[in-house]
Amino acid sequence: MFSEASTVQKWLVKRLVELGWEYVPGDKLARERTDVLVEDTLIEALEVLNDRLHGFPERVDEVLPEIRARVLAGATDGLVPANEAMTTLLRGDHTVKYVGTDDYVPLRLIDFDNLGENDFVVSDEVTFGPPGKERRYDVVLWVNGIPLVVIETKTAVNSSVSWLNGARDIANVYAVEGPTFFTPNVLVAATDGKEFHYGAAGQPGEHWLMWGSTQDPYYLDGTPRVKRSVELLLTPARVLSVLRDFTLFEANPDGGKRKLIPRYPQVEAAEAIHKRVLDGGTKGLIWHYQGTGKTLLMGFAALMLLNDDAVGGPTILVVLDRLDLVEQVERQFRTVGLPRLTVAGTKAELSQALKDDKRGIVVTTIFRFEDVGVLNDRDNIIVMVDEAHRTQEGQLGDLMRAALPNARFFGLTGTPISDKDRNTFKLFGDESDPGYVLNSYSMERSIVDGASVPVHVETRLVNWHLDKGALDEAFNEFADEENLTDEERDVLAGKAAHVKTLLLNPDRVTAVCEDILDHYTAKIAPLGMKGQVVAYDRELVVAYEKELNRLISERDLSYTTAVVMTAGGKDDPTDWAKYELTRQQEADIKARFNKPDTGPTLLIVTAKLLTGFDAPIEQVMYLDKPLRRHTLFQAITRTNRRYTNPVTGQEKRNGLIVDYIGVGNQIAQALKAADPEAGGKRPVDVDALAAEFQTKLDQCLARFDGIDRTDHSYEALSAALERVKTTEERDAYAREFTAVQTLWEFLWPHDDLKPVEDDYKWLAQVYEASRPSKVSDALLWHRLGAKTLALVHGHITDVAVTGTGLEEVIVDPDSIDALRKLAEQGELDLDPDRDYAKAPITLDEVLDTIDARIKKRLDATGGHAVYATLAEQIEKLRQQAIQSATDSIEFLKKALEVAKTAVKAERLEDEGKLDQAAHLLDPNIGALTQIVNEYKPAGTPVVVDDVVRDIDTIVKQVSYSGWAENQSGDRTVRKELRSVLSKYGLPLTGDLFDHAYAYVRENY
User: Fold this and answer.
1) Residue 462 and residue 452: Cα distance in Å, rounded?
2) What are phi and psi of 855, to 5 degrees?
3) Average pLDDT for residues 387-393, to the nearest whole number?
4) What's the angle, vertex CA 321, arms to CA 316 and CA 323, rounded to 5?
5) What are the pLDDT digits (tens) for 5-43?
6) Quick one: how far is CA 233 from the chain centroid?
7) How many beta carbons lie within 10 A of that of residue 964, not counting itself?
8) Rounded CA separation 267/550 (Å)
């Protein structure tokens, strides 16, 4: 029979021995069942690690009672406070003065620098407790006779238990009944062989996280993930590293303490920063998903740098771009007890701290560097810039670097920017790092790990919801009736289409506020979570506050609201004076919002609190403001923090965005990761996603073929459940439906979804009815559901992007003679002295020569897209040649064109402009580039490549077969072409428009 001990526990002990732990069975340890420590081993370590103890047994008797007292304090002082005191002792930060000596010296219980000087033991079946109340711990890791890690194992073959049962055993039973055994604890863990989770002493089991590596596939799970977790976290070196470098204790507002141990991406990033500094590097970019602990990451990195003598007493400068973030970081750093902390709140304070050569941690804002000159030229000033994408690429960033000419700069961001004006990658990233990123922790990985929750989107259709297509059609009909010119149409369209005209309509305000309260009451309030309302502007904020409060009173609800916005300007209405808040008043509102038992219930904002606001209790954001790209991404991730209501025990399963403004495409773009080379995010083809949804829906429905979906009886439901009866069938259906659900939530209310709404709801009901009730199955389903956002991101990245410039190359059929000229010039690496009349160039020779040249460049550039495409074209030509050798002259023509393109690409590469070579692969791009260059007004400061790319992209999106012969199609293309020209400040009429339109009409 399989059992817990014979499967998971036995494997774990064996693997730990392979990782460097010596196996000693629990009943063979030299200790009594009531002893926490293996004192013989501890005494031996004390004598080896402390010169003042060696040869003085009486001095052992001086320190041993103090160590015992620290351990026993867990039963009197509380587990976490006692653990904090014991951590100080274990780290060697406690000093003693022996009888007969004159000075205090550190007491070392562990050698962190020479691991071989320590005794590492793994034991199983360790019993602890007084007679009649003993508890048996499955696996314990001892260092020098001190129990640092306790692991609970559960069998993998019992579906009614899981790792969570083990975690709860430790957190709710063992640590409560026997706190002294956990006083020296570094970490606790639980595994059922299918999942491995770890936590800190005093942390509820539900909050334990997963360990891993950012180098592994994010979807790694099951036994492979368990093995990796053990191999990475439970080595002697890593356990001691967590103890020495990555353990902090945070003071709670109620006066208690909370132990903080790291997540693996924090460890990776902090160690990467530390190593980069030691190696003499000057910069690095940390790209971690929002809400995954960048503030603590900076704290851990700062500790490592400050505690390493090799860094030479550094100054750690933490630079932020908002005062409220300074307060937030200062509060976090102070509550965890980071040493030598200074806040430079003014330019003078910053200048003084740096000119005085202050060592330690200095927190300030980027604005304090304005016109300060050179402040310090030391090279062990390490600058960590939080939210590095926002304010670093302008004048302030330049001034900061000028003030600290030899400093090392590390940027931390969840939303790096790469566009024509800013590039976070190039500013902070080292070119030797893959993709210019020193360490990355992605959205997908964070959600799979449980470090953040997925964010769902609900799209709302409300009266006067902006339907751009219908609005354009109505406007065009009106313009035709009035015989307006194109210029007049553009002027009127710009004035009439202002979003605020619709949003301020009183009926719409009431409708949205009613829906907010309906939604909050039904979905959020029962969970004990709170919400944020984001209005278009301050006027809408005020309108929403008044209407929400009126409806709350009318419905006799217990909800309360609070407004956080900038107010008090000279042009503001007088009745807005009540919204003018001091920094303390705003801080009080945020603090009360984060408490489950106080108001406000709903925060109403327009700009404030959209970024940098950490409120785990916030589950829903009611979004009624058009946002874009990194601002939108930062806003919607306000809801992604993990949270469990301390009163009800309700866990937040996902964040939720309720979209009243129609930002579906913008959300898709915001979720698309920035490309450090390509310059930003790409648009998403929603229609293609709708087609993919239909395919996945059909696949899901096929499982229930033969069942009448219009029959809503219990018998029909039972028949459907029979199709997902086994665990394998349920799991497979869970994966299928999750993919359908993901796309539905993203696409709704796309027109293609409405005809199949009943089918989708039917599948959803079967899904809910088939959810298992057992603990392990519930966890499995929870994990699958928690991948919603990661699946969305994955689907988005798989969508084909239009306008990439990688279409089929069009060759010049009349240029065959140029082949010889190229050969004679040596461009094809052929013999220039060759007599081509007697030894003509063969097709295979041409293809081989061009292919070799392209492959050489392809390897040298790391697989650049231009050369990769040319290599594909050569391979296509070779295959065609095999099939039809009679058309050799045409193949030579095509080969010539590829050769020409390769030569041009090489020249651009030699000039450092290879990324501009996309137009070589697309004749339309090349032709439009020539037109814009020739006909744009002299001195116009535009990036021609950007103009051409936008024209090509937008025309491909709006054009269709036969559009030029259709009045509506012709009008749409003209309008979109003018919109691109207008975007770049180019004339809407004249030669540029005429020639560009003529080319588009002929070739698209």
Assistant:
1) 31
2) -65, -35
3) 54
4) 95
5) 657 899 999 999 999 999 999 999 999 999 999 999 999
6) 22
7) 13
8) 50
Which residue blocks in 831-917 are alpha helix, DSSP H? 843-860, 865-883, 888-910
* Secondary structure element (H or E) that encloses residue 233, with its range: helix 222-233
d(CA 750, CA 662): 11
Highest mean pLDDT among 233-242, 394-403, 475-484, 591-600: 233-242
- DSSP-derived secondary structure for 236-282: HHHHHHHHHHS-EEEEPTTS-EEEE---HHHHHHHHHHHHHHHTT--
Rounded to an integer, the average pLDDT of 71-86 is: 92
Q: Is the pLDDT of residue 199 over 80?
A: yes
CA proximity to 29, closest of 114, 112, 124:
124
Whether the per-residue pLDDT at 669 is higher than 60: the answer is no
How far apart CA 563 and CA 386 sit, in angstroms, is: 27
Nearby residues of 420 by Cβ (< 8 Å), 6 or more positions away: 679, 943, 946
Q: Tell me the β-bridge partners of 263.
A: none
pTM exceeds cut of 0.85: no
HSE-CB for 150 with a 13 A CA cutoff: 28
- Which of the residue ranges 185-189, 360-364, 511-515, 793-797 would you say has the lowest mean pLDDT? 793-797
pLDDT higher than threshold 70 for residue 364:
yes
Identify the bridge partners of residue 456 per DSSP, sorted by sequence position: 656
Residue where the block lists tokens 């988005």: 796
Residue 595, phi then psi, degrees to nearest 5: -100, 135
SS3 label, residue 562: strand
Edge-to-edge strands, sheet with 146-153: 22-23, 120-128, 135-143, 146-153, 187-191, 196-199
- Name the burial class of residue 132, with classes exposed (0-12), middle (13-18) and buried (19+) by CB atoms within 10 angstroms of its CB: exposed
Q: How confident is the model at residue 965 (pLDDT cuts 50, 70, 90)?
A: low
Q: CA–CA distance from 48 to each of 99, 108, 505 (Å)?
A: 19, 9, 79
Tell me how crowded residue 480 is: count the other CB atoms within 10 A of its CB.
Answer: 12
- Which of 692, 695, 670 shows the shortest CA–CA distance to 681? 670
pLDDT digits (tens, 9 = 90+) for 505-520: 677 788 888 888 988 9
Q: What is the largest CA-CA distance in the chain?
A: 106
* 975 three-class SS: helix
Residue located via tokens 């709708």:
690
Q: How many helices, marked H, and strands, marked E, lie in the chain?
A: 38, 23
Strands 315-320, 381-386: pairing is parallel
Residue of 657, 653, 686 whose CA lies nearest to 669: 686
Task: Read off the tokens for 671.
Answer: 């979720």
Q: Taking CA 146 as the corner, what is the angle to CA 142 and CA 147, rounded to the nearest 5 degrees?
A: 55
For residue 698, give the 3-state DSSP assignment: helix
Decide: 146 and 140 in contact? Cβ < 8 Å: no
- Nearest Cα to Cα of residue 161 among 735, 779, 693, 593: 779
